[in-house]
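Propose amino acids for all 352 sites.
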């Protein structure tokens, strides 16, 4: 079988999910041919850097404008299927003899769905939703199956008109390396992450305090944010600053607590690795639902107020072994709710 996974580099989460799906498919079906394509770069090679640059600017500097545009975009989910786009999708699918498309970004699902209608194509389209909350842009008429994070996401899709037998609760996909049981020790190892863009709200407000706290081991992963790396790497005596790495699982394995933004993939990496989560002031629209999920399921804490003492809250949580053990127990329950079904199990298409 030839499988095509479509993603977009809007942050690192979608690409990470795509790589995790590929890993799982090849683990179960080593004879399959699996490709990952940046669909935005493929369709719009001349302006893809501008598209991604604009996204990064909005997320970093104009988050309120980003949330506003995101809200508008979620209500206008029709992909503009121009003739040159149809021809490009033709070449991509037909020349590679693609049997199944797996989308981890909503625009990709919209384009492939519109293409299937126009060409009367029977290529299978499965969509993996990478956040807890799901907006209309994720929904496309020609999607065969939706793989979702949790029961809340499933119910949200049903409320929006998707039939229940098209929805599988799989959790947001993470790499196999994150799948281990947490060994709880009386130690103080903190992992701080800001996603692929290295976005860590209010970082200067709490790192100094943590740096002065005795017996803490602190690793800060800033991803591709070189400016943040240069700023932090020589500033603190007891904090280890890491740039982009493919070995996040190693740091998460040792961590008693992860301090992070409320990205869907990072959240489920923490759940699968049984690492309690501390989220600082979520501000992106799609991450607000993830933060509420963390609170509702008691798998971490969320700081919502700007004037809250972040360092004190982190120290209180990491010193409360009983509370963290309860969070780990709740994470185990979430993992047990996942349906152990391959992304390619229903390779003939149709509904469950």
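Proposal:
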């Amino acid at each position: 079988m030839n499988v095509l996974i479509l993603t977009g580099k809007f942050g690192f989460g979608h690409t990470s999910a795509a790589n995790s799906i590929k890993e799982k498919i090849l683990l179960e079906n080593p004879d399959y041919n699996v490709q990952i394509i940046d669909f935005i770069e493929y369709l719009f090679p001349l302006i893809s850097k501008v598209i991604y640059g604009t996204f990064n600017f909005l997320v970093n500097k104009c988050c309120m404008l980003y949330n506003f545009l995101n809200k508008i975009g979620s209500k206008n989910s029709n992909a503009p299927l121009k003739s040159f786009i149809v021809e490009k999708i033709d070449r991509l699918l037909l020349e590679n003899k693609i049997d199944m498309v797996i989308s981890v970004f909503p625009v990709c699902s919209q384009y492939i769905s519109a293409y299937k209608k126009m060409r009367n194509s029977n290529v299978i389209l499965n969509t993996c939703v990478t956040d807890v909350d799901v907006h209309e842009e994720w929904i496309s008429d020609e999607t065969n199956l939706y793989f979702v994070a949790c029961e809340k996401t499933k119910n949200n899709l049903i409320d929006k008109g998707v039939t229940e037998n098209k929805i599988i609760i799989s959790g947001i996909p993470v790499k196999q390396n994150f799948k281990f049981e947490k060994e709880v020790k009386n130690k103080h190892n903190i992992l701080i992450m800001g996603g692929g863009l290295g976005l860590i709200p209010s970082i200067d407000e709490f790192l100094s305090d943590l740096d002065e706290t005795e017996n803490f081991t602190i690793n800060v992963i800033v991803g591709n944010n070189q400016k943040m790396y240069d700023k932090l790497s020589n500033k603190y005596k007891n904090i280890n600053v890491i740039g982009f790495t493919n070995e996040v699982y190693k740091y998460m394995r040792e961590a008693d607590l992860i301090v992070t933004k409320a990205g869907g993939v990072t959240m489920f990496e923490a759940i699968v690795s049984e690492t309690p989560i501390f989220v600082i002031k979520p501000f992106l629209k799609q991450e607000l639902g993830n933060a509420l999920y963390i609170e509702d399921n008691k798998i971490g804490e969320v700081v919502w107020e700007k004037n809250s003492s972040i360092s004190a809250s982190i120290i209180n949580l990491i010193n409360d072994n009983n509370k963290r053990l309860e969070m780990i127990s709740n994470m185990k329950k979430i993992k047990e709710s996942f349906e152990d079904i391959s992304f390619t199990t229903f390779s003939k298409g149709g509904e469950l």
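Residues 109 and 210 are 43 Å apart (CA to CA). Confidence is low (pLDDT under 50) at residues 61-76, 348-352.
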